[in-house]
Design a protein that fits this description.
Length: about 350
């Protein structure tokens, strides 16, 4: 999938409108020959204009450029790479388009704004747990022909061998030889649980993330460390798997809230599972935050629109995309990167889903 970049988002492939609501027909690629015929000049003249070569008058350049813009002619990325050994395109490879990767993509768009680079976003279509190593296959397809370098979002492997520079965002396995940008998940989890402890909660449950993902492991570690530091025993019955998936989180939340002595607060490993926990509480008639406090992790835009708005740990996802792309552009240019492994700080965002522990609990 090829996407155009903007400051705040992305647009999909361009199609001509279909008649009477029918599926739109793909737009045919305009050729250099069509531009030459429309402009009344030779193909070689069009080529000189496109490549900024000498031997064409300013008037002709303006005329041909106007025709190019009117017809929507675009140079093939493959042809551009064969001619210049550079496509001026960066790739972003994601497991799937979900809130986290979408925020990373926004950060990539911020970073390439005004840089002369374009953006290609490529998705593995989800189900990454069934396809470990998808990054290797896609990098082989794209690198050197369509893109000059790539940002891998939450890659399942970091021992990739690519024909160009690669930077990882939130890698599964943590720091490796691959340049990477991540958030301080351990400290962020501590912040979320400490907030609940300060509110007087002592029975704090957790809906965990994916066990194979380092960030999820660190968030669970932070949860456990915060409880122990407060002099509390970790009750394993209050720790339920959520896998970063809302459906799994709903099951986990129902199990927690159905316990004979249910938790008065839940720390969820990401916002999507925290929002799912809010849904379950609402279905069970449990008031949030009157009877139950919930804290998430990520601070995706949807967290502020929860019912109630979600208290969460902010990791600077968009900034992670920006920083990874800035690092990638440096590497593409041949410049050295001062720190190839960057960890950004996290912070607590207080909203309406947390309150003091109910009396008598």
């Amino acid at each position: 999938m090829t996407l155009g970049s903007s400051r705040d988002g992305f647009v999909g492939p361009r199609f001509l409108p279909g008649p009477d609501g029918a599926a739109p027909a793909p737009r045919r690629r305009v050729t250099m020959q069509q531009v030459a015929a429309e402009a009344g000049v030779s193909v070689s003249t069009v080529s000189k204009v496109i490549n900024g070569r000498y031997g064409v008058s300013a008037e002709t350049v303006d005329h041909v450029t106007g025709v190019i813009n009117r017809l929507g002619y675009e140079v093939s990325l493959v042809a551009r790479s064969l001619r210049n050994h550079r496509t001026n395109v960066v790739g972003v490879l994601v497991a799937d388009f979900e809130p986290f990767s979408t925020e990373v993509l926004k950060g990539v768009a911020d970073a390439i704004h005004g840089s002369g680079y374009e953006l290609v976003a490529y998705s593995a279509g989800g189900h990454v747990e069934e396809h470990v190593g998808w990054e290797r296959r896609y990098l082989t397809r794209l690198m050197g022909t369509l893109i000059d370098g790539a940002v891998l979002v939450t890659p399942t492997v970091t021992d990739v061998d690519a024909d160009g520079p690669v930077v990882a965002v939130d890698p599964h396995t943590g720091p490796s030889g691959l340049p990477a940008v991540a958030a301080d998940n351990l400290q962020g989890a501590r912040l979320g649980v400490e907030h609940l402890l300060e509110l007087g909660h002592t029975r704090i449950g957790m809906v965990t993330g994916r066990p194979d993902l380092l960030s999820a492991q660190q968030r669970e570690q932070g949860y456990r460390e915060a409880l122990v530091a407060a002099g509390l025993r970790v009750d394993e019955d209050l720790v339920r798997p959520g896998g970063f998936e809302p459906d799994l989180a709903r099951v986990a939340a129902r199990e927690l809230l159905a316990l004979p002595d249910p938790p008065t607060a839940v720390f969820a490993a990401n916002d999507l599972t925290a929002l799912a926990t809010l849904e379950v509480a609402r279905d069970l008639g449990i008031d949030v935050p009157g009877q139950l406090s919930v804290v998430g992790f990520d601070n995706i835009p949807e967290s502020a629109m929860g019912d109630p708005p979600l208290t969460t740990v902010r990791q600077p996802i968009r900034q992670m995309g920006q920083q990874a792309t800035a690092m990638l552009l440096q590497l593409i240019s041949g410049a050295a990167v001062a720190d190839p492994h960057v960890t950004l700080s996290t912070s607590l965002v207080r909203r309406s889903s947390t309150a003091s522990r109910p009396h008598g609990c």
